[in-house]
Design brief:
399 residues, single chain, mainly alpha, two-stranded antiparallel sheet
Length: 399
């Protein structure tokens, strides 16, 4: 091969079929070089696109998007949370000061009754004192009630941080999956605006991922049911069909073209409702045992939580804080968090997939029942026949 020759391709990255054209490099026009470069870029972009929109690629994008969203909510909401904490401390100190003042004042008034020679300047009756105590305690109780609006909890320094890495990560997962536990929520205008934009993108990513993974799991379940559970039926059928055939002409199950079998094609097989229910129950119980160990819940509570989450009901009465706790920073905590996130997402995929398969099965049953009752439409299959012109015979040519 001549090293001074460059083999070029046609425009838009499509190779010229039939032959390659060898030309000298110095004779190649800039336009051709540009087209070659453009075709290479398109090929690289196509590869990147296939990777990003694969099942694994979408999962990686969702994980990165979740971590980024959690950090953004922390940045946006932490200053406001710090202000609420400072307001709470101020209210708590004022309540504590008023409480201590009333205690000292009550002690002084009680002392005036016991030692009138020492506290003779008060000159207050017991009836007036009781009325005074009632008024002061009423004011203090109202002050405490108003203090609860500033998150007053009876202590001065005590505070439970809301926007931690654990809570924020769990929060964005509930956004993207539309579960919405409601354990925390943004309180600032910028946080609410970011949530709306983030939710539109995140839910779109999650729906795309669930659709791809759901189709994959659905095809895999159909394949397993068709090639495993239906295999005994296929063997019996082939034995009947092969009775009058020679050994070399007999067909075997392993010779089937999967998806296009003559009997019960895998592409058209329907999964029974009982199989779908078993899959849902199995996945539900797997999560129940997992969260029982991770969250120290009883089995009934874990099962209840998994069902509420998989169905996206999300009451918020049970929140898996421990499963999403990454504050320790060790590898096991990250693995646990990834596993917990994966279970929540895949659980919703499995549930929606099984419900869809059950709907297909019920639709087929309804169609068969309607046809049996004479209200269905018969399917008419037509064979496509191609007609060619008859070749002229020699006798025709001689005549």
């Amino acid at each position: 091969m001549d090293n001074n020759k460059t083999y070029m391709y046609g425009e838009e990255g499509d190779a010229v079929r039939g032959a390659r054209i060898g030309v000298d490099e110095e004779d190649v026009s800039p336009m051709v070089k540009k087209n070659v470069k453009r075709s290479k870029m398109k090929g690289a972009l196509k590869v990147v696109q296939e990777i990003l929109f694969s099942n694994l690629g979408l999962l990686i994008i969702i994980i990165v998007f979740s971590v980024w969203g959690a950090e953004m909510f922390i940045v946006l909401e932490t200053p406001a949370e710090r202000e609420r904490y400072e307001a709470k401390v101020e209210v708590a100190k004022k309540i504590s000061e008023d409480f201590n003042f009333l205690v000292n004042e009550f002690q002084r008034q009680v002392g005036s009754f016991k030692n009138p020679s020492i506290y003779d300047e008060t000159n207050i009756t017991q009836e007036n004192f009781e009325k005074y105590v009632e008024e002061q305690l009423h004011q203090l109780s109202n002050q405490i009630i108003r203090g609860t609006e500033s998150n007053y909890d009876g202590s001065i320094e005590g505070w439970t941080e809301e926007w931690t890495h654990t809570n924020s990560l769990l929060f964005v997962i509930t956004i993207m999956t539309t579960v919405g536990y409601g354990h925390i929520y943004p309180s600032t205008s910028q946080g609410k605006m970011f949530l709306m934009i983030y939710a539109m993108v995140g839910i779109g990513l999650m729906v795309a991922f669930m659709a791809k993974v759901g189709n994959f799991y659905g095809d895999m379940l159909k394949y397993m049911y068709s090639r495993i559970f239906c295999r005994p039926c296929r063997i019996v059928r082939y034995k009947i069909e092969n009775q009058h055939l020679r050994r070399k002409d007999r067909r075997q199950v392993h010779q089937d073209l999967v998806g296009e079998e003559d009997w019960m094609p895998t592409d058209e097989v329907m999964i029974p409702i009982t199989i779908n229910l078993v899959v849902i129950l199995g996945f539900l119980m797997m999560g129940a045992y997992m969260y029982r160990e991770l969250e120290d819940w009883d089995l009934m509570s874990s099962t209840y939580f998994c069902f509420i989450t998989m169905t996206t009901i999300g009451f918020g009465d049970m929140v898996p804080y421990k499963s999403f706790d990454i504050t320790s920073g060790n590898l096991s905590s990250y693995i646990t968090t990834v596993f917990a996130i994966s279970y929540l997402i895949v659980g919703m995929v499995v549930l929606s997939m099984c419900i869809s398969l059950m709907q297909d099965m019920m639709a087929m049953k309804a169609s068969a029942l309607a046809k049996k009752l004479g209200k269905g439409k018969d399917r008419i299959s037509l064979d496509v026949v191609s007609v060619k012109a008859r070749k002229p015979l020699k006798s025709d040519s001689t005549n």
